[in-house]
């Protein structure tokens, strides 16, 4: 992937009573978003003001300052932390003599760059077109002057030059294609969930979800997964991996797209399918960067989970990056279990694996079975269910065996044995209660 480095000046409005820490987190996030899109932030121009200026977003004097910064750094782009109206973009581009983007366009651009699956690409294109549609009047034709680089990926210039009707038709067509892709995906998901439970890794962007998934699969799974690049939004489409539990069961571990504060509504809609995976999960592992502003991020995650109707799922909160954290955050009150560690160093991960096994009822229990040897079909079923650890002859034609199975499946095994024959005796021991 070729990433162009674009020089950027940021324009930020500070509401008068915004705490210093919240402001800093906002600028850090915007800077991270720029980096994720392959841009470098040269200067940040902030202005404290109550209201947004109808014509220029910020005050006229501040815009002059931004213009000076653009000249000083030879910047190619000015990005405003907010949503700009089409008129504001027009006025600002005239005043600054430079391309202007808002936060939504920046995020759309990153999504366009990262989308890997067909579904992801369709979603991004729909969101981009929806964003463009109301902005195409008047200055629409001038869109063609936007050269390569950030803010121009996705629907190509030729598409931008078409009229609104053709864009609407295109959106309809994309929606149809997306519906097809989703149907197929639901079938696949239903097939998968019959057999194995699933866990969704969710959390704020850059928390370390993909790094954790990579470690988990290296320790307990098969297959590979990309990670380790310092980019926000590195994961746009859910990635699912099969992982073994410490018992003899397995489950599906899913990566998801990271949340951001104030994700533009257009994007929440467009990326619902990646979050739909969360709805199919038996357990949510909430990954939180322990070095960041923990409280606001917990809030963001639970708000988004609420929006998609996933708040009833059991949650395990994993405070990540403890290798770099200066203190240990308090346990998450929403979570069934809170654990601390580092996906990068591996500290604490085995406690995490064990806790997930327990919450999924995949921790091993021992099923003791005694019955007639001649019931071969039943003994074969027992052998298939798990690892047989002890076999012993009880008397003539009778045997006893111990089989280790995930707790989740123990009940079903017992029921099947009892239903098949009443000369079998079955008891379950071991397992850790939740
Ligand atoms: N110090 C430290 N850094 C970590 C740890 N885990 C992940 N990182 C780093 O944090 C950055 C983000 O990690 P990712 O795994 O890509 O984060 P993510 O949650 O998947 O991010 P999105 O896909 O954007 O939502 C990378 O640079 C990782 O190397 C950790 O335990 N400690
Ligand atoms: Mg990721």
Automatic annotation (TrEMBL):
GTP binds at residues 203-210, 233-237, 255-258, 320-323. GO terms for molecular function: GTP binding; GTPase activity; metal ion binding; ribosome binding. PROSITE patterns: G_HFLX (PS51705). It holds the Pfam family MMR_HSR1. Mg(2+) binds at residues 210, 235. Monomer. Associates with the 50S ribosomal subunit. NCBIfam families: GTP_HflX. This is GTPase HflX. The gene is hflX.
């Amino acid at each position: 992937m070729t990433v162009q480095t674009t020089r950027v000046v940021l324009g930020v409005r500070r509401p008068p009573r915004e705490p210093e820490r919240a402001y800093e987190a906002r600028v850090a996030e915007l800077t991270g978003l720029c980096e994720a899109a392959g841009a470098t932030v040269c200067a940040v121009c902030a202005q404290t003001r109550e209201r947004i200026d109808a014509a220029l977003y910020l005050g006229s004097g501040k815009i002059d300052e931004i213009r000076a910064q653009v000249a000083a750094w030879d910047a190619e782009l000015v990005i405003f932390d907010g949503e700009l109206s089409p008129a504001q973009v027009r006025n600002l581009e005239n005043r600054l003599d430079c391309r202007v983007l808002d936060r939504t366009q920046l995020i759309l651009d990153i999504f366009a760059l990262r989308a890997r699956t067909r579904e992801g690409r369709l979603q991004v294109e729909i969101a981009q077109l929806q964003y463009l549609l109301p902005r195409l009047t008047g200055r629409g034709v001038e869109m063609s002057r936007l050269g390569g680089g950030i803010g121009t990926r996705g629907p190509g210039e030729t598409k931008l030059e078409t009229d609104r009707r053709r864009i609407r038709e295109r959106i309809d067509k994309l929606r149809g294609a997306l519906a097809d892709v989703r149907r197929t995906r639901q079938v696949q998901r239903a097939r998968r969930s019959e057999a194995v439970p699933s866990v969704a890794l969710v959390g704020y962007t850059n928390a370390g979800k993909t790094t954790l998934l990579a470690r988990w699969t290296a320790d307990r799974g098969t297959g590979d997964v990309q990670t380790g690049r310092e980019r926000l939004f590195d994961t746009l489409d859910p990635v699912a991996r099969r992982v073994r539990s410490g018992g003899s069961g397995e489950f599906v571990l899913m990566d998801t797209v990271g949340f951001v504060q104030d994700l533009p509504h257009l994007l929440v809609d467009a990326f619902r399918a990646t979050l739909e995976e969360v709805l199919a999960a038996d357990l949510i592992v909430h990954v939180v960067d322990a070095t960041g502003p923990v409280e606001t991020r917990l809030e963001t995650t639970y708000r988004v989970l609420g929006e998609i109707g996933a708040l009833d799922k059991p949650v395990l909160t994993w405070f990540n990056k403890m290798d770099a954290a200066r203190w240990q955050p308090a346990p998450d009150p929403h979570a069934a279990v809170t654990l601390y560690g580092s996906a990068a160093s591996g500290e604490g991960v085995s406690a995490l694996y064990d806790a997930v096994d327990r919450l999924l009822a995949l921790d091993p229990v021992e099923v003791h079975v005694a019955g007639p040897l001649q019931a071969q079909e039943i003994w074969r079923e027992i052998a298939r269910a798990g690892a047989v650890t002890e076999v012993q002859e009880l008397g003539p034609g009778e045997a006893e065996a111990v089989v280790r199975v995930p707790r989740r499946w123990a009940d079903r095994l017992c029921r099947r044995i009892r239903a098949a024959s009443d000369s079998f005796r079955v008891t379950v021991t071991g397992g850790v209660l939740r």
